[in-house]
Amino acid sequence: MALPLAALLAGCQVPTQALVFIDGDPQVRASTRALCVIVYSGRREEGRVQYSRVVRVPEDVTLPTRPPIHPLESPNALFTVEARGCRTSCDDCFVTAHATDRFRPGERSELQLHLSEACVGITCDEALTCLEGECVLPDVTEDGELPLPSDAQPESCAAGSSYCFENPRPGPGSFDACVGDAFAALSTNYGLLTNVSGVWEVEHRARLDFGSMVCLDGGVAVAAGQRGSLLERGPDGVWTSVDVGTT
């Protein structure tokens, strides 16, 4: 079901538009009773609000939802969309996320916003947004997604060191990290991420918090989690469960 925000934008009948896909973690969905959506011209820190709308959840809209946004300025204008998960009104919000993109003339693009449980209570600088517990730049990639918290300089960590916390570093959304001879690994509440060539990628979606990791040579790593769980990464990048006491 589309947000009522779409009705405010219906008067601008141009083919150029962006569909904003808004979703949240199960815990965020369960706690959200009001969804606030704010559309800015340019970047959020510039403060040029074009639209602001609050809708009731689940009476008016359910998550996920996908409201359309149309340009009011040039057909290739920069814009930012902010979504807030709130308990009663826009003055009682507990999680927020925003993303910045540019309209593409004559095209329908997609912009994705995810309200993460790891971002509950996290306050970022005005120019940054929260993604999986980390404050990151809000500029989306070509496919409309915010890049996962990443560090394009893994080589600055010494090979074989036990920890490398330059960026991202452990916080509400990340638990531990390690560096091997050819890759870096990071344990987050989003899953197990690895960085081989400067880009963090999710290799294994894990529900348990893997709070201890060791990276070895040859692309091998071991991650220990709750209740005695243990995962091992092979040279092929595949994580498999290991019985404690067999290695």
Describe this structure in words.
With 247 residues, the chain is mainly β. It has 2 domains: 5-136, Immunoglobulin-like (Sandwich), CATH 2.60.40.2990; 154-236, no CATH class. The protein is built from 2 helices and 17 strands. The chain has helices at 5-9, 26-31, and strands spanning 17-24, 34-41, 49-56, 68-69, 78-86, 93-102, 108-115, 129-131, 134-136, 174-179, 184-188, 191-195, 200-204, 212-215, 221-224, 230-233, 239-241. The strands form 5 sheets. It has a 4-stranded antiparallel sheet. The termini are far apart. Mean pLDDT is 77; it is low at 1-10 and 150-172.
Rg of Cα set = 20 Å
Overall pLDDT level: 77
Number of strands: 17
General shape: globular
- One letter per element, helices H and strands E, the order comes to HEHEEEEEEEEEEEEEEEE
CATH topology of the largest domain: Immunoglobulin-like
Given helix and strand content, the structural type is: mainly beta
Assigned CATH architecture of the largest domain: Sandwich
Briefly, what is this?
With 247 residues, this protein is mostly beta strands.
Which key features would you list for this structure?
4% helix; disordered N terminus; 2 helices; 2 domains; mainly beta; 4-stranded antiparallel sheet
Outline the fold blueprint.
Layout: H1 5-9, E1 17-24, H2 26-31, E2 34-41, E3 49-56, E4 68-69, E5 78-86, E6 93-102, E7 108-115, E8 129-131, E9 134-136, E10 174-179, E11 184-188, E12 191-195, E13 200-204, E14 212-215, E15 221-224, E16 230-233, E17 239-241
Parallel strand pairs: 1-7
Antiparallel strand pairs: 1-4, 2-3, 2-5, 5-6, 8-9, 10-11, 11-12, 12-13, 14-15, 15-16, 16-17
